[in-house]
Input
Amino acid sequence: MAIKIKNQKQIDGIRKSSRLAASVLKYLEEFVVPGNTTKFINDKALEYILDHGAKSATLGYGGHGSVPFSGAVCTSVNEVICHGVPNQYELKDGDILNIDVTTILDGYFGDTCKMYPIGDISKNAQDLIDVTRECLAIGVNECKPGNRFGNIGYEIQRFAEGKGYGVVWQFCGHGVGLKFHEDPEVSHVGQKNTGKRMKPGMIFTIEPMINEGVAECIIDRSDGWTARTRDRKLSAQFEHTILITPDGRELLTDVYGEY
Output
């Protein structure tokens, strides 16, 4: 596994693309309301991305599934874990929605996602969102030079399972920046003190997918993309693109200032 160490020019370009991706999520907040379809939200995202001189990395992407992905963003509602295809589904009060966006700006990739509550959501849904956000924070805290990648998944799994949730192992974080998906794979489950060591200049995502019930997913045969929880219970996800620096890390997609 060859993990690319980015140079300063590449880091600057990836940072700009990452900030743009995060700004898409912020822009979409006003449209994530009951009655709007996920296709409408997708179209707003694409318009914003194009207006800022960038492209969507997911639109037409063929890395998974039986057909190329048709959305500019992934829209995953309720029991959908990830890779939800935008369609005519109308958001309703009580839904939870994940939007995942990856931009390509001047050839550089930035990748991020977050959860949106639709109207008044249940306590179970809010608790799941809160735990998932904390799982990302726990993973981020492990990001520093010399630490091993396995500790990210170990700490996330320990926390989430301790709260009674399932941690998805069929999908993972990944290196990003010069390509959509690079080495390393960043698992959200794992054994302590395993894996490669982190070094300054490495850029990757952490994107824990936490399920209300069992960890396993089933992919819809209808589109070859949409991954749902096996037991149809809720799922949530948060994601940041992270740069390892000489003295720690920089969250390239944290435009909200949460970390």
About this structure: The chain has four helices and 15 strands. The helical segments are 8-28, 38-51, 123-141, 150-162.
